[in-house]
Amino acid sequence: MMLLRSLASLCILAAVAFAVPAQEKRIHHHADLSDHAHDDAHGFQYDHEAFLGKEEAKTFDQLTPEESKDRLAKIVDRIDTNKDGYVSHTELHYWIKHRQRRYIEENVNKHWNDYDKNQDGKIAWEEYKNTTYGFYLDEEFDDIEDKATYKAMLTRDERRFKNADRDRDGIATREEFTAFLHPEEFDYMRDVVVQETVEDIDKNGDGKINMDEYIGDMYSPESGEREPDWVQTERKHFSDFRDANKDGYLDGDEVAHWILPGEVDHADNEAKHLIHETDTDKVDLMLLSPSDTHRVTP
């Protein structure tokens, strides 16, 4: 058992940010724990956001180390729901899931009043369309340089809105609007997420993704540059794992298996990871706050 003299082991989660490899952005972990790649060798921003929540993490970035320590001590006390002086894996798992749900709720709340113009507690497609594209609709996007892109965005938004609108009345309830903004959270929106992903990557318009398109979505080589090892690894992943039927392409089902790994509980994995990484003696972790001692146990 090791007694920590500060919350430094968790404070490091508030310290470092790093670039995101493109391939990480395609995978829709339900209620993404972080927009950053999970790679402790390069930093702890993923853990930082998973533990605190994305918005709270931004606040921590502005605090001094001492302020962060005090704030983290209060958070640890909230995680310890049974007040036994320990933060268990179960409590940490619940906390991370709570932060996931709260991020989605806050994101929906942030956008709600922007679109619910008549304040009736619902958002009609016309309200969303006019607020987002209204300035350009009368001119059919004629004043925009990339006219085709904006028309495609409108078409995609309308298709996603109609899929989220389960009763097909052209009006989104708060739950339906949540499905519109965060389709990866809803099983009935699965096909939309897959379709949009294929459309983004499928450059030749044949409705499926070949090896070059798959790699091209992640990596654009510069003249004379040697292809990085991670790109070679992704080529192997495409051939050995992604392309399950070995026809040289990713179809809808294969894309779904790639980007929507729903059977994986990433909050559970992150809870185990935080305990494992912070508990250096592999027995338990004692977190010392200004007024109390907390232990995180595996």
Automatic annotation (TrEMBL):
Keywords: Calcium, Endoplasmic reticulum, Metal-binding, Repeat, Signal. One of its GO terms (cellular component) is endoplasmic reticulum. It holds the Pfam family EF-hand_7. Residues 1-19 form the signal peptide. The keyword Ribosomal protein does not apply. Its main location: endoplasmic reticulum. The keyword Repeat applies. It comes from the Eukaryota. One of its GO terms (molecular function) is calcium ion binding. Residues 67-102, 103-138, 152-187, 189-224 form the EF-hand domain. It is found in: Endoplasmic reticulum. InterPro entries: EF-hand-dom_pair, EF_Hand_1_Ca_BS, EF_hand_dom. Belongs to the CREC family. PANTHER family: RETICULOCALBIN, RETICULOCALBIN 3, EF-HAND CALCIUM BINDING DOMAIN. This is Reticulocalbin 3, EF-hand calcium binding domain. It comes from Seriola dumerili. The lineage of its organism: Eukaryota, Metazoa, Chordata, Craniata, Vertebrata.
